[in-house]
Specification:
24 helices, alpha+beta, 18% strand, 5-stranded antiparallel β-sheet, 808 residues
């Protein structure tokens, strides 16, 4: 015998090794390669929306844990000895064989949960003795690879629950509208028995057998002490669902974004507040219902939590099943659109930050022409000159263009890119000065993140650190990576990133952008804007929230924007048509701002920003011009300004003038004794600005004329200026319906409105004007010089070109 064993020892060993190897590799590394549904969850784990798996099954991604109630119900019903057997339960198998022999048919399989996982993995295999043996072998291998908890999770994730519902999470939402962790005892018992006969739960079917099966399990669990008699009775009273519920469709556009970002089939855990998401969605839908009456089909909104660096509400677009609204599938939060006036506050803050302007510096507000760019104020009215903060509050276009001209559009282009604006894909010259009036595109995502970064600079400012500034990394407010929103940079959870990423973020943090003081003055100016419509007197309400806000309207009334900022929240709203169709009345102030304030009304109470005193200083500022006071200033105010503002120039609008004793005429030493002169300081605007300014400011006093017996003007005194055309202007002269060429209107501003002005075109005398210095001409195509001479010999020349006729 020993010889025989010794003879076959090596073949036996080889066979054993082969069988062991076959046993080791009999299970693949990944049991289930099924496609999963993509699920979007709120911050508290509540499901907001989901997209069905590619095979048409509501199969959610594998669960991370199983609730105690469901586990207790499942093990009581399916496998009471789960934690003690090695994958196969010989007692259960023997009992099943006996029951089947007695019944003459298969009434019990005796399968453990491990064997059922193997059966689900093998999909559709026949239920015969051979397959049962294979299941038993594979089940023991499964037990060696996975922990008991992992096997339970595999079962719960892939068990069939009727129709096209697979897995405990999908079943919990479809049948009970809640997470599996929130199931009641009755609901857990129902889902424990359902995979045994999933066809029992189907719309229109009699659910009595399923209820009886569930109640028997509840009785057994009561006997084993899981709950008391009262709980048992209450559990039995819970109804059986008649049919699966519809999956929620909240934040659907964010779900679509996750899929586009390569996260299909995953569970996307966001920071959205489910309750706030619904309230904001309702606000937007209510307004959109009215806007549709005017042909405005789409709207979107986003709410960012500044202090926690999270996104709390995301309405990519108004979406309602069964409506005829067009473009509702477009996620406008991520769509590049003309920015309108939304970049003006950033430009204002940039000028303050770099000491190029003070908060109330006087800016030109007169018709202006820059070669092929002729901006106009929205109202087509002009103030002549306006303080910078009021220009921002009133969103005046002409002062904004002058600010950009002073700052430099290439410089501003780089500034915006540094702040996180990702849509500036063209060189600065492509946008030019029109950039500040919507000539460039931006997304609601980028813009709200920029404003959030500005707000965060103020909320994080520490007065002991005089140079704490906003940094580019602050603007990566909520970079969506498909699974969660998280902050890059100084606020990043270091456990989530590599050392290389941290070094990159530190490098970004050195890219300083805006000071806290410049942002504070910017938000202060934005605070002064009046609310639209019936809320115009909002400042009278003691409970009114202080909100820095800005609206924007794109050319052609295609986009209406509104962004509001507090220390706690940034709210962004866009209204329009996704296909770009413009509509009358589609403005930020009329269409978007009302939504903005209604959203703030559903947010928790907000506060206001504290001034960053460490970056500010008291300085003497000229009351009229808003510049630093000069020796010629008439009224000086001591006010707070950014420290960088100490580098700005003194007021250029004040001069020392000498009057005669009547104070009606200016004089000089050529015509008046010095002792008889009255010297005074005078606020003097350039002629073009003065022409419009005095219409709005009746108290503005024109500079008195030079007395007739005096000779000459001071060298720095502008007597007249051309309102139109601008230097080197290119003029198109259209053809009217009668086939005749239209006229071009030339206008001059003179310090003495009653002066006579003599006009010449290419040295040909045209005529004389007095009072209203306007002349309509029809010059031929080509280059021209227009010359204007006043009665005192002052001369004004202007070159312009008339282009070939257009139109017809």
């Amino acid at each position: 015998m020993r010889k025989q064993i010794k003879k076959y020892r090596y073949p036996i060993m080889v066979l054993f090794v082969l069988l062991s190897a076959a046993y080791y590799v009999c299970l693949p590394k990944t049991l289930f390669n099924d496609p999963y549904a993509t699920v979007l969850n709120a911050e508290n784990g509540e499901m907001l929306s989901a997209r069905i798996a590619r095979d048409g099954q509501w199969r959610f991604p594998e669960v991370d844990s199983i609730s105690d109630k469901y586990e207790a119900a499942l093990l009581t019903f399916e496998d009471q000895y789960f934690y003690s057997h090695p994958g196969v339960n010989p007692l259960a198998m023997g009992r099943a064989i006996a029951q089947n022999l007695k019944a003459g048919s298969v009434v019990s399989g005796g399968s453990t949960l491990s064997m059922q996982v193997i059966r689900m993995y093998r999909k559709g295999k026949s239920r015969n003795v051979y397959e049962k043996l294979v299941e038993m072998i594979l089940a023991t291998r499964l037990e060696l690879r996975y922990s008991k908890k992992s096997i339970l999770k595999l079962y719960a994730s892939h068990a069939p629950f009727g129709g096209n519902t697979v897995g405990i999470e999908a079943a919990s939402w479809r049948y009970f509208g809640r997470r599996a962790n929130d199931l009641s005892w009755a609901e857990a018992a129902l889902l424990a028995v359902l995979p045994n006969q999933p066809s029992l739960l189907y719309p229109g079917r009699n659910t009595a057998p399923l209820k009886a099966k569930r109640d028997r399990l509840l009785d057994k669990m009561h006997e084993e002490g899981f709950f008391d008699e009262t709980s048992l009775e209450l559990a039995k009273e819970e109804p059986i669902p008649s049919k699966p519920n519809d999956i929620p469709i909240e934040a659907l556009h964010l779900l679509d974004k996750g899929v586009k970002d390569g996260k299909e089939g995953q569970r996307l855990q966001t920071t959205l507040d489910a309750h706030l998401q619904r309230r904001v969605d309702r606000v937007v839908k209510n307004h959109n219902a009215l806007l549709r009456l005017d042909g405005i089909e789409n709207a979107s909104a986003i709410v960012l939590d500044v202090r926690s660096n999270t996104v709390k509400a995301y309405i990519g677009n108004v979406y309602e099943e069964g409506t005829s609204s067009t473009g509702q599938q477009v996620d406008v939060i991520q769509a590049p659109r003309s920015t309108g006036s939304l970049l003006k506050p950033i430009l204002y803050a940039s000028l303050l930050d770099e000491g190029l302007m003070l908060p109330k510096s006087l800016l030109p507000d007169v018709p202006v022409y820059f070669k092929n760019f002729a901006p106009k104020n929205f109202t087509r009215e002009y103030d002549g000159a306006v303080h910078a903060d009021m220009a921002l509050s009133r969103s005046l276009n002409i002062p904004a263009v002058h600010m950009l001209q002073d700052y430099g559009y290439p410089r501003f282009h780089e500034k915006l890119k540094g702040l996180g604006m990702t849509t500036l894909t063209q060189p600065a010259s492509h946008y030019g000065l029109s950039m500040i009036l919507g000539g460039s595109e931006g997304t609601l995502w980028d813009l709200t993140n920029i404003y959030a970064g500005m707000a965060r600079t103020l909320t994080q400012f520490n007065g002991r650190v005089a140079e704490k500034r906003y940094e580019k990394s602050d603007f990566d407010f909520a970079n969506y990576d498909g699974t969660k929103f998280k902050v890059q940079g100084s606020l990043l959870n270091k456990k989530d990133v590599s050392k290389k990423q941290l070094n990159e973020n530190i490098e970004l943090s050195n890219n300083k952008q805006l000071s806290a003081s410049s942002i504070w003055f910017t938000f202060k100016a934005m605070l002064e804007v009046y609310r639209p419509g019936d809320d115009a007197q909002w400042k009278l309400y003691s409970s009114a929230k202080k909100i820095a806000w800005k609206t924007g309207t794109s050319f052609g009334y295609r986009d209406g924007w509104a962004i509001g900022v507090t220390p706690e929240y940034v709210v962004g709203v866009w209204v329009g048509n996704a296909d770009g169709e413009g509509r009358p009345g589609l403005t930020g102030i009329q269409a978007a701002a009302p939504i903005l304030f209604d959203i703030f009304d559903v947010l928790p109470e907000t506060t206001w920003f504290n001034p960053p005193m460490a970056e500010m200083v008291y300085a003497p500022v000229d009351h009229q011009s808003g510049y630093l006071a000069s020796s010629y200033s008439i009224q000086v105010d001591t006010v707070l300004i950014p420290k960088a503002g100490l580098n700005t120039m003194a007021s250029p609008f004040h001069q020392r003038v000498h009057l005669d004793k009547t104070r009606n005429y200016r004089v000089n030493s050529d015509c008046e004794l010095v002792v008889d002169m009255i010297s005074t300081n005078w606020f003097v605007l350039p002629p073009k600005q003065a022409l419009y300014y005095k219409k709005r400011n009746p108290t503005y006093q024109e500079l008195p004329p030079l007395r007739s017996d005096c000779f000459g003007e001071s060298l720095d005194m502008e007597v007249m200026d051309m309102v139109y055309p601008e230097p080197d202007a290119q003029v198109y002269i259209p053809i009217n319906l009668e086939g005749e060429r239209e006229q071009v209107v030339f206008e001059v501003a003179h310090r003495k409105p009653n002066s006579q002005l003599h006009w010449h075109l290419d040295d040909v005398y045209l005529g004389t004007t007095q009072g209203n210095h306007v002349l309509a001409l029809t010059p031929p195509a080509g280059e021209h010089i227009i010359t204007v001479v006043d009665e005192e010999g002052h001369r004004l020349l202007r070159n312009f070109t008339v282009l070939e006729k257009v139109g017809g």
